Amino acid sequence: MAVGAPGSDARLREVRRWRTATVPGPSLGKRAEQVYTVLLTCAIFGVGLVDTVHTALSEVISVDGGATWGPAAVLIALVVVARWGAYQGPVVYAVADVAHLLGAPLSRRELAARRLASRFVAGAVAGALVGGLAATGLAGNGPGISGARAVGLIVAAAAVGVIAVAGAWAVQTSATVERVLGPATWLALAAGIALGLLGHRHPGVIRVERWSGPWGWASAPVRGPAWPLAVVLVWVAAAGAVALVLSRCGHCPTDRHLRRAEARAGAAASLAGFDARSTRKALQGGAARKAPRGTGTLRWGGRGSVRSLLAWRGATALRRTPARVAEALVVGGAASALLLVSADRVTAALGGGLLLYVAATRLLEPLREEVDVPGRARILLPDRWGAILFAHTMLPAVLLALGVALGLAVCLAASAVAAPGGALAACALLGVPVATLAAALSARRGGRLPTSVLSFATSSDTAGTGGLLVVGWLLMWPLIGALGAGLPVALVASGGIGSLEPAIILSVLVTAVLSTVLRRSATP
Questions:
Q1: Could you give the angle at the alpha carbon of 207 between the alpha carbons of 202 and 208, nearest 5°?
Q2: Are 493 and 424 in contact (CB under 8 A)?
Q3: Which residues are registered as beta bridge partners of 249?
């Protein structure tokens, strides 16, 4: 059926009038009550929340930092939100709606336009909230920013939210854009960190970034001349994106809508059972999957140790998904740059440690597959379960160390390594096994919330703290990985070469503890 079939718009209006008459929505009083409840809640908690956010963020961000890292942060946020369209996107129908609504002689453009309009509004609100948080942290921090610039920052951030939703829709509708976006996500992360580091060293780079595109225009109100023009430009870009999307919003293929509908149904069912691993697999089903590549010349040529066999299996699996290796190398290099250039800031050191953890998670898919089917290892591999899991971390640790070395080489070429450079590089490399082991211990859980944790969190003895217990259980290994990999670097950056020995002892001790815990893992 053609997207713009004659009379389809009129038929859709008739269907909506019938639905409004037969299934009335909430009354005006009910909606007014909901609005009143939201406003009252915001008024009660708003003042204290603003003070808390201002106190916390003022320790992390500054006007100089916002001007330097603002364009990079906006660029990364745009790409990350656009990648959301590869798995879900702004417009997702139910499975039944794909068959009945999209198969009916109704205007697809009108079906999607109303949903897209609401998503654009939601994106603008979300962007304004993020801009408000940034303005709250910047206000009163040293010289701070004026009230007019704070309003300009909020307005520009709202436009960025609209552009991000438009990008997500472009990815949702086009398989070509989706294929390009995969590597572009990690390239944008690397480019953002590189631009931030260059801007920290060379102020001229900041002036170029400020007028390079919507990511620079949105951060112009933080500092710089002619910022009202930048706000106008970012809103012109947002209006153009909205007009383009609404004019072509009826051209998304049905099979892409169906994949996302099925992915959402499966993810909702898995999430109800607190199964994050199955939820992730279901959402990945909404993205276009490429056929796996062959293993080329990789062959297992005879008997050998279990460790060698698992290394071969891991290499074979990673060869079939080279994008994971590339992503891990890029993220590992970005983490190395943060640890070597801005380690004097504790937040940068912890961010670098967290990026090392994220890079390690990209390389541990063979371990996750082992955890998904533990009976296979019990039957085929004559070794303890903990030793099998530990063997799966060897190849990822080597590849992650290679990514850190590449980041170090780039920083040395740019003469951007802080003093003492050799000690910082040694601590960054020592953070690789810490991040890899922490990621392996997280993957060992299989992405599922244990029934014991859930029962204890919902018991009467933990009233009021059950949610914190679940959040702590979820964030335990990422925090351990970030702290274990980042704190030794921060210690050397603040204490100089004399702090190298305690930093090495700390890294070795954390590595030994994590490896012991992983080796003693019991078979699930």
A1: 95
A2: yes
A3: none
Per-residue pLDDT of 279-306, as tens digits, reads 777 776 666 555 444 444 444 444 457 7
Angle at 189 (CA atoms; ends 185, 194), nearest 5 degrees: 145
- Find out whether 286 and 264 touch, Cβ atoms under 8 Å: yes
Is residue 275 helix, strand or coil? strand
pLDDT at 142 over 60: no
% pLDDT > 90, the chain: 20
CB-CB contact of 338 with 482 (8 Å): no
Distance in angstroms (rounded) separating the CA atoms of residues 28 and 25:
9
> What sections of 417-464 are H helices per DSSP?
421-444, 451-457
pLDDT tens column, 457-473 = 777 565 557 677 878 88
E-strand stretches of 58-111: none
Q: Which two tokens stand for residue 140?
A: 């009163």
Q: Is 127 exposed, middle or buried (0-12, 13-18, 19+ CB in 10 A)?
A: buried
Identify the residue with better confidence: 269 or 520.
520
Helix axis angle, 147-173 relative to 254-272, nearest 10°? 110
From the list 275, 477, 507, the residue with the least C-alpha distance to 364 is: 477
The CA distance from 518 to 506, in Å, is 18
Q: Answer yes or no: is pLDDT of 2 > 50.
A: no
Q: How many residues does the chain have?
A: 524
Average pLDDT over residues 347-368: 89
Q: How far apart are CA 284 and CA 280, in angstroms?
A: 6
d(CA 19, CA 263): 27
Q: How far is residue 73's CA from residue 516's CA, in Å, rounded to a whole number? A: 38
Longest CA span, the chain:
79
Cα angle at 477 between 475 and 483, to 5 degrees? 95
Structure tokens that stand for 289 in this block: 């999957």
d(CA 8, CA 169): 23
Q: Is 61 exposed, middle or buried, given 0-12, 13-18 or 19+ CB atoms closer than 10 A?
A: buried
What tokens does 284 get? Answer: 């990945």
- pLDDT of 53 reads 67
Q: How far apart are CA 368 and CA 440, in angstroms?
A: 9
Distance CA 38, CA 1 (A): 44
H-type helices in 445-499, by residue range?
A: 451-457, 466-495
How many Å apart are CA 83 and CA 517, to the nearest integer?
A: 35
The phi and psi torsions of 289 (rounded to 5 degrees) equal -110, 130
pLDDT of residue 16: 73
- What is the reported pLDDT for 232? 93
Torsion sign, CA atoms 92, 96, 102, 107: negative
